[in-house]
Amino acid sequence: MVGRKKRTQNCDKVSHEEDEDRISQLPESLISEILYHLSTKDAVTTSVLSTKWRYLWQWVPGLDVEFNTFSNINAFMSFAERFFYSNRGSWIRKLRLNISDPFGKCDLNSWIDVFTTRRIQHLAVDYIPTSEIPLSIYTCKTLVHLQLVRAALAEAEFVSFPCLKIMHLEDVIYPNETMLEKLISGSPVLEDLLISRPYPWYDKAKVLQVRSHRLKRIDIDGSTEVVINAPLLLCLRTMIYLTKNFKIISLGFPTKLDIDVVFSKKKTCCKGLIHDILTDISRVRDLVINNVILKDILLYSNSGQLFQFRDLSRLNAGFAKSDLEMLPTILESCPRLESFTLELVKDPSMCGKMKKEPNVMFSAVPQCLVSSLKFVELKRSIPRYEGEMKLIRYFLKNSTILEKLKLNVYYTKKEKCDFFTELVSMTRCSSACKVLVL
């Protein structure tokens, strides 16, 4: 019996060891796929497990490294070159490099030449440049997602990204506006475009031409002239400097429109801008907008009649306190509104002037409060507004089918007690309404 017990224990020990090392018995290609879903740091750490695992991280089809995680530039270069040159025939599916190399020691150009021939699909490079991105990047036929941050682009005669669907360019320096147009026109299946522009004196491209028949999302941020020709566009987010031109040649009926307006020191009239977007904004279903342009849209009309957002279901709008008087008019212009986020913000035009509390008349009940409004969020980045409780009471008292009222506001400990006491006592038209205070 003793011998039988020992034999059982030995069998159990062997079985346990086999279970522990079962993952090492998997094909190397499958192990590489598992390591791909780990961070690069964790994937490299597995090299200490055994002799078999020592070099497996170099076969992983993805790399995500930051220069500042290494002790010095030489350690970073040694690590990167071991990965890039370990097996030139392997596939690099995804690559993200964050490099700060003011002395130009990194051989980024040769690295790019390597991974553009290795069927790369996702490339993100954050690079403080001492030289331009090499020309080989412009003809990478497998790229699906390209993100460049703080990079300098070289001028190229030919650009071809036949598979590129997402292109994000943040603070990229272009040799001229023609090169920027080539990047877009050379991407025939491009659907998602983000362009965040550097300050004008770092950039020779003064006019941003966006012409594409496949684009669905455009995100533009920068002080430059913008021309858009995108008939299939679904989502547009842009910051407009009123001293610049914003011209739409052809625009689809976007489901979401996010517009922010930045004034120069001297405010200029934006009637031309409003005229350009009026015909398209009326079909928008999701609108994020600030008080400046929203007020101008409501007031500007050739017929003098109130502008209508007949299809709008979601509205996220910034208001200065002085603009709250037009709130009932805005709600009246959105007969199908289901979700409304109102944020109280500072009014730069009132700087140094006597602050006057707005006299908001809540006598009328807009159609949306009766038939469609289900969610309201009130938030502010300014001190407490005296008429805030009146505003809250208005929505609770008149919103027939309201499901949630979210209050993202700050109160001192002394104010909180009075605030909750008054909030609890308010009449609610909708018995299903929940009030959430953050």
Automatic annotation (TrEMBL):
Lineage: superkingdom: Eukaryota
InterPro entries: F-box-like_dom_sf, F-box_AtFBL13-like, F-box_dom, FBD, FBL13/AtMIF1-like, LRR_FXL15/At3g58940/PEG3-like
Family annotation (Pfam families): F-box, FBD, LRR_At5g56370
Record gene name: LOC104725884
UniProt-listed CDD domains: F-box_AtFBL13-like (cd22160)
Name the record gives this protein: F-box/FBD/LRR-repeat protein At1g51370-like
Gene3D superfamilies: 1.20.1280.50
Organism of this sequence: Camelina sativa (False flax)
Domain (F-box) ranges: 20-56
